[in-house]
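queue> pop job 88
queue> type: inverse folding (structure -> sequence)
queue> payload:
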């Protein structure tokens, strides 16, 4: 199976969400419908990055790396 790592950004709050999906465009529509608990309150979302990574295990590993490097750059 092919998986992508994707990054979406909230136009409302500026928050970033990093996830994995077989179809990032379809997943973006789900985020914008409010189907995800975290992203529901920050609609609308735009896709800012997607990368084909291979299988689910590889995608999850890449997602964790991106989340780790992103959180290190952000000051809370």
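queue> result:
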């Amino acid at each position: 199976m092919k998986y992508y790592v994707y990054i979406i950004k909230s136009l409302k709050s500026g928050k970033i969400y990093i996830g994995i999906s077989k179809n990032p465009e379809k997943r973006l529509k789900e985020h914008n419908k409010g189907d995800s608990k975290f992203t529901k309150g920050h609609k609308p979302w735009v896709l800012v990055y997607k990368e084909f990574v291979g299988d689910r295990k590889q995608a999850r590993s890449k997602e964790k790396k991106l989340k780790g490097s992103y959180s290190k750059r952000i000051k809370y």
